[in-house]
Amino acid sequence: MIELTRLNGSPLAINCDLIKYAEAAPDTVLTLITGEKLVVLEPCSEVSQLTLEYRASVLRRAWPEASAALSAKSAYDAEERARNHSRHTSGE
Fold first, then answer.
1. For the whole model, what pTM was predicted?
2. Which of 13, 42, 80, 83 lies in disulfide reach of 46, CB 3.0 to 4.6 Å?
3. 55-87 pLDDT tens trace
């Protein structure tokens, strides 16, 4: 679920898997797969970002070893880039 705000300022939690599409007209209008339309204060880009963050958190919880492996790979890649940069700048 992602938390959004209705036009009247009241909070709204929505299952982002039900969002069919979001459009700015000029307010953000979410059309759900049920055909229901919701108007929210957050821009489409923020709805997309919140959805991405929510789905990433679900995957991290469902597959924690993948998250740990990605963190380790990121650290290794950063060290490798630093070594390569050092070689290039030192003239090796």
1. 0.68
2. 42
3. 988 888 887 776 666 666 676 777 777 777 666
Q: How far apart, in whole angstroms, are the C-alpha atoms of residue 37 and residue 25?
A: 13
Determine phi and psi for 28, rounding to 5 degrees.
-80, 120
The residues facing 92 across adjacent strands are: none
- Whole-angstrom Cα distance, residue 22 to residue 44? 6
List the structure tokens of 3: 């938390």
Number of domains in the chain: 1
d(CA 40, CA 89): 51
What pLDDT digit, counting tens, does each position of 2-52 carry?
999 999 999 999 999 999 999 998 899 999 999 999 999 999 999 999 999
User: Domain range holding 82?
Assistant: 2-90
